[in-house]
Design brief:
This protein is an alpha/beta fold and 330 residues long. Helices cover 50% and strands 19% of the residues. It contains twelve helices and eleven strands. It binds adenosine-5'-diphosphate and magnesium ion.
């Protein structure tokens, strides 16, 4: 009897141990699944935010269905009492080459500086590649290329070194850099001269190098501030050809400022004529000409809407700046 009851006690002990084991396994399983649930519950959110992060460069005006690559809303910039850009409302469709024309001092560079986030607007705002220049300047910068009015390439470096500097500046992967640089040099017809110091380049070659620098990270929107000022006709045409090819192949939107009417006629799908910081006229080159008459040229359009000749307007500072750029481009 004693023996039997001993066995029964041992059995019930084993039973209890088994139950304890099973229940602790259940608990562990529950904890694991709870933890998994936690992870899964968070995962969609993380995956979502990661997806939107990585998709942000793609979420341009093209992808989001937003029709305009550049849209300005009452964009204004004052310098003291003087209003350089006055309540600008522009709508620039994706994939277009848009020309901002106007005499010296009309506000072209100031507009570009605001759109590239280098200068804050006094009031109003704009969106570039779908991002607000005031709310999301870092995003804007990631999606644009910019060739400033004044020369930006470093004469003491080779073409290749200038491009490598840009590649690092744009945060391009080490593995991508050399391939993209070779591609950009070839595209701009500079493969041979890539090893030479930039101070030995002609003005046209420097401008093409600067275009190569600005296109390296494949921007959605490109800003070019008087890209051919001071260039001879051959060099000018070489820059135009490269620019047209680039725009055709990449479907980039290009905003170009110029007071060269041939350039505007040759390159631009649409134009705005700026006069004293305000838009005096906007439209396709042929439509603007047609407004003035059957034989009107773009020079006539410009003179009509900018209230005088191409040389008028602007301060000593503007003229000095333009001349300095022109002489450096030689
Ligand atoms: N940093 C500045 N400080 C003061 N005035 C400026 C500054 N930048 C531009 N301006 C003035 O704003 C006006 C527009 O200049 P800008 O945008 O450079 O004209 P554009 O590029 O059409 O020649 C000009 O009268 C110019 O003198
Ligand atoms: Mg300017």
């Amino acid at each position: 009897m004693r023996f039997r009851s001993q066995i029964a006690r041992q059995r019930s002990l084993a039973h209890e141990t088994l139950i304890a084991l099973v229940s602790s396994l259940c608990c562990a399983a529950m904890l694991v699944s709870l933890a998994r649930y936690e992870i899964l519950a968070k995962a969609p959110h993380r995956a979502y935010s990661r997806a939107t992060d990585s998709m942000e460069p793609m979420e341009t005006t093209l992808q989001t269905g937003e029709a305009y690559a550049i849209k300005t809303d009452e964009l204004t910039r004052k310098f003291g009492e003087m209003t350089a850009v006055d309540a600008l409302n522009l709508r620039i469709s994706s994939g277009k080459i848009f020309g901002l024309l106007g005499p010296n001092g009309a506000g072209k560079s100031t507009t570009i500086k605001m759109l590239t986030t280098l200068l804050e607007p006094t009031s109003g705002t704009a969106s570039v590649a779908g991002f607000d220049i005031v709310e999301a300047p870092a995003q804007v910068r990631r999606h644009i290329g910019y060739v400033p009015q004044l020369l930006s390439a470093d004469g003491g470096l080779t073409g290749f070194e200038n491009l490598m500097l840009s590649a690092k500046l744009y945060g391009m992967n080490r593995s991508e850099r050399k391939g993209r640089i070779a591609e950009a040099l070839e595209f701009m017809g500079l493969t041979e001269s890539g090893k030479r110091l930039v101070k030995t380049y002609s003005g046209g070659m420097i401008r093409r190098l600067e275009l190569a620098q600005a296109m390296l990270h494949r921007p959605t929107v490109m800003f070019l501030d008087e890209p051919t000022i001071g260039l001879d006709p051959v060099a000018r045409h070489a820059v135009w050809d490269r620019l047209k090819d680039l725009q055709r192949e990449s479907q980039m939107t290009v905003l170009i400022t110029t007071h060269d009417m041939d350039e505007a006629d040759e390159l631009c799908d649409e134009l705005a004529i700026l006069h004293q910081g305000k838009v005096a006229a906007v439209g396709e080159p042929d439509a603007l000409k047609a407004k003035l008459g059957p034989d009107a040229t773009l020079d006539d359009v410009f003179a009509h809407f900018s209230g005088g000749s191409i040389q008028e307007g602007g301060s000593y500072r503007d003229v000095r700046q333009a001349r300095r750029t022109a002489s450096r481009l030689g």
